[in-house]
Amino acid sequence: MSSIKFDLRSDTVTKPTIEMRKAMAEAEVGDDVYAEDPTVNRLQSMIAELFGKESALFVPTGVMGNQIAIAIHTKRSDEIIVESESHIFHYETAAPAIIAGVQMYCIPSVKGELASSSISEAIRPGDYYFPKTSLICIEQTHNRHGGTVLSLSSIEEVSGFAQSKQIPLHCDGARIWNACAETGTAPHEYAHYLDTLSVCLSKGLGAPAGSVFIGTKDQVEYARHWRKLLGGGMRQSGILAAAGIHALQFHREHLRDDHEKARIFAEQIFSRTSCTLANSGGTVDTNILIIDCGIDTDPYLLRNECSKRGLEISSGRGQCLRAVFHRDITMQEVKEAAMIFIQSFDSIMKENR
Ligand SMILES: *Cc1c(COP(=O)(O)O)cnc(C)c1O
Taking burial as the number of CB atoms within 10 A of a residue's CB, which of 42, 93, 102, 319 is the most buried? Predict the structure, then answer.
């Protein structure tokens, strides 16, 4: 196996910078199970304020943030509405069935924007033999649709509808930072329409670990109970929170560059191969590209050929590959990575002839 030159499998592959490590080393810490870690408390206050909510809770991962949200909003044997391509449905090991004890009702959409008409059809009537619909989840940006941005108006619509049915709305905002960077919408403008959110610090922002659950004071107190139950009560976690604070202060402002990188890579590879863009809606909204290799190209062969030449990308559904852009690849390296992709494509086409 040759060494990795360019890693576009995910925006989670970024490594903490020297400055970030310095902030971590110097962090003032305490025992966070007693809520006495000043750095964790500072991160939680910063996030609560950014999102215009009462309170926030530092959790180890995005999955834990989402599962805590599901647990606090539901009772066993309830049902939650999620989008068909959502992270909660595909990549969280059926956790809602195990942790909260609820089942998922999946609704398909374009770009991840749930239509209130389809939610309306999915909400269960009150008869005792139905599960009770007790939560609606959306995802911003939407991962499997290709980093798509849900418009503020679509979130407003879902929110208004959810409120009229008295069903809470949770947002898996693992990459909400990218949506904010791209549209100029402030975190609190999205959060205004949401009951709870979970946001990641370990993706485009570049922290080594950590996510944050956001909600009311009561919701966060209940979340603290669930975090402990799930084994997520950490001690001097200010060392990790310091990385998150550093990322918010110094990395957040550069997220738009990652979107530019995705567009440059897309421009290069789609003009020089027969691959096509498979992002839902046909646009590159943020830092994720879903690449449709077409029926004549074996995506596994192409991925392996790229890998041999030092470019790592991941597999997607069916004929698709996925590339994610992040702060640890420069604009110049993106162009080199695109050349490797094009050469790999040409090479496997030649072999197939
Ligand atoms: C990565 C991701 C998560 C989960 O984050 P982890 O920290 O890996 O548990 C949740 N939702 C979406 C959309 C993600 O991309």
Answer: 102
